[in-house]
Write a structure and sequence with these properties.
It contains 22 helices and 18 strands. It is α/β, with parallel strands linked by helices and about 675 residues long. It starts with a helix and ends in a 7-residue tail after the last strand.
């Protein structure tokens, strides 16, 4: 069975090569010779039999032992050909046995009686070309360049459920064979061909995703089969350096290579929003490093990064290059609200300057009267607006803490505001992300995933075309599929591999290209400040947090972690004896002063001011638990005061039930 499988693969590839034209030139003679090569073997066989008959007659003429030996040999060869051909199609088996029988019978007679005795010469001159032509016709019928007619030798296609499917002229490239196909009209469609791809890969003994389909958009039964027999992505490719240093974010980001060696490119303004997905160990972090490394070398982009789960474990080197980094769940919640506020502010600015959407010209000083916010037809000279990349690493934690549609507004409205939303997570299932948000993420970079999760990361038509990230899981780190606008659709199902990168490269890019990156524009910064207040205006651009000593690592002798009120306590001293009153109960006694309504409202306003000073700009009833206990107020009272504060303009409702955003009392511009 293995031998038959290898023969079928060899026959298919041989036929594909045979039908390929001479792509290297060489003149008309070389072209004709190349086209004649597939049809020469039968004619060479006929000539060889004739020559053997002449030589055999000179040696064995009128030899009785030779007659017996030649007769037995003829029978053995004919029978052997029939038996050997039992694993092929019935038509091919009969054709082979008949050809072998006729040839060996003529050869036996020619050796004994002479090639010109009686009718032997006429039989040779008429029968030899007929047999050779029959094989030429078989080759033509088996692989019809026009894709018309019926395949007389179903062979491999019949075994995988594609009988009567015709193949066109093959295009053979290094490690790639492309074959047009036409499913039988009224019997099969492109969907049937897609279902047969795994069986075809098994028949050819290639990886499951090595056989792909490209559908003809103008036909329901025509397309191309793409076969890549060898995995060219096994070799690791290290990051070669920035592809467009100092260029625009509108230029493609080169983040890896496809299996044919062509570059894997992502253009963020075209891709808009991107979902990065892959199980642990599948190389998702490598992809993130490649994208951020390229982004940070461009001159007209700013980054807001949320990394409150790993807190810089993987992406810490990029922190100093970001305009804003959120390392706590509270900061991430505020950042989401700031992005929502930035969308209308940026859209208004772009509209005022006659931009229908963000483009590189929008990031420059507005010296063109055609893009002026003035009404007198003169250039306004406004400072340009940077493209904004909002990146939420390990977003599943954010979705679980907040809401599964927390990103929906951003994904739906940021398209024309020059904002890209990038969500990175291990699983984008319906339990973690809303269908509205998933539908609003048009692009995806999918690494190895579980089989059941592939449908959340890639469109159905890409999976039907042969994409199979479930075959990798975490066994092939860096292997991925990229689906995004700006990429040819035929590449969606082509496997690729991101560059191998390391934090040292990211640190170098962060440092060396600091002078090339433009600061965030005042429009976006003002919108963020109006929502986040001091959480944005007093933000710091931290160094890599993993390089900063943590409190737990400090020397206890330096007094780290000791409350100033307890500095006089000697930890080695003996505990004092019981004192009078120590046995009195702590609870059930006098509760103390309970504020009147006016005082309680004042205390509530002070609490909001304290939260604002701490940078906690999104609050809810649970944030007031300690405050309620300290002032003897119920949570229900706090809920009413939250609604009153919203009516007073001090709070604004968020998309999440029970969560309110503090409106800064004096928002910094």
């Amino acid at each position: 069975m293995v031998k038959h499988r290898d023969n079928e693969q060899h026959d298919l590839l041989q036929l594909m090569e045979a039908q390929r034209g001479n792509a290297d030139g060489g003149g008309i003679g070389a072209y004709l010779l190349h086209r004649a090569k597939p049809h020469l073997p039968p004619w060479l066989g006929v000539g060889g039999v004739g020559l053997a008959g002449v030589l055999g007659h000179l040696r064995w003429a009128e030899s009785t032992p030779a007659a017996v030996g030649l007769t037995l040999t003829s029978v053995a060869v004919s029978g052997g050909a029939y038996l050997i051909g039992k694993t092929t199609s019935k038509q091919r088996r009969l054709h082979t046995a008949l050809t072998t029988g006729l040839g060996s019978a003529w050869l036996t007679a020619a050796c004994l009686a002479g090639p010109t005795a009686g009718p032997l010469d006429d039989l040779y001159l008429m029968g030899g070309p007929a047999v050779a032509l029959s094989w030429n016709v078989r080759v033509l019928m088996r692989h019809n360049p026009d894709g018309s007619g019926e395949n007389s030798d179903a062979g491999l296609l019949e075994k995988v459920g594609l009988a009567r499917t015709q193949l066109g002229a093959a295009k053979v490239e290094p490690n790639r064979v492309t074959v047009p196909y036409a499913a039988p009209a009224g019997e099969a469609t492109n969907e049937d061909v897609a279902k047969a791809l795994p069986k075809l890969a098994g028949a050819l003994d290639v990886p499951p995703n090595a056989v792909r389909q490209r559908r003809d958009p103008d036909s329901a039964r025509r397309g191309e089969l793409v076969i890549v027999p060898t995995d060219m992505l096994k070799q690791v490719t290290w990051f070669p350096g920035p592809s467009a240093p100092g260029g625009s974010i509108a230029d493609p980001l080169v983040i890896g290579v496809y299996d044919d060696g062509s570059p894997l490119m992502l253009t963020l303004p075209q891709a808009i929003h991107l979902l990065i997905m892959g199980v642990t160990g599948a190389g998702k972090t490598e992809g993130a490093l490649d994208i951020l490394t390229e982004v940070l070398t461009r001159s007209d982009v700013a980054v807001w990064l949320s990394d409150h789960v790993k807190k810089g474990q993987d992406l810490g080197e990029v922190f100093p290059a970001c305009d804003w980094v959120a390392t706590t769940p509270q900061d991430t919640e505020i950042m989401i609200e700031a992005v929502k506020a930035a969308i209308p502010a940026r859209t208004e600015w772009l509209g005022a300057h006659s931009y229908r959407s963000w483009c590189p010209e929008a990031a420059e000083v507005q010296n063109d009267p055609a893009h002026s916010c003035r009404n007198d037809g003169t250039a306004c000279g406004c400072v340009g607006m940077a493209y904004l990349v909002t990146w939420f690493e390990e977003a599943a934690n954010t979705l679980a803490r907040l809401d599964d549609d927390v990103f929906t507004t951003i994904a739906q409205e940021a398209r024309s505001a020059g904002i890209s939303l990038i969500i990175s997570m291990q699983r984008a299932s319906g339990y973690q992300i809303s269908t509205d948000t998933r539908a609003s993420l048009p692009s995806s970079l999918c690494f190895g995933v579980d089989d059941k999760d592939a449908g959340f990361a890639l469109p159905g038509e890409v999976l039907e075309a042969g994409a199979n990230p479930g075959a990798w899981k975490n066994r092939k780190p860096g292997y991925c599929y990229l689906v995004a606008a700006g990429i040819e659709e035929e590449l969606y199902a082509n496997p690729a591999r991101t560059f191998r990168n390391d934090p040292v490269t990211l640190e170098w890019v962060t440092r060396e290209f600091a002078g090339h990156r433009m600061p965030l524009d005042t429009v976006t910064a003002g919108a963020a400040a109006s929502v986040a207040g001091r959480a944005y205006t007093d933000r710091t651009r931290p160094e890599n947090p993993l390089d900063v000593p943590q409190e737990d690592d400090m020397d206890d002798e330096q007094g780290a972690g000791v409350d100033p009120e307890d500095e006089h306590i000697d930890p080695e001293a003996e505990l004092p004896d019981n004192q009078p009153g120590d046995d009195q109960p702590l609870f059930g006694q006098e509760k103390g002063h309970k504020p009147d309504p006016e005082e309680a409202r004042r205390l509530f306003a002070d609490a909001l001011a304290q939260f604002e000073a701490e940078g906690r700009m999104v609050v809810g009833p649970k944030d007031f638990t300690d405050w309620c206990d300290a002032h003897h107020l119920s949570r229900s009272w706090v809920s009413l005061r939250l609604k009153d504060a919203a009516l007073d303009g001090r709070l604004e409702a968020t998309n999440q039930t029970g969560r309110w955003r503090i409106v800064p009392a004096l928002a910094a511009a």
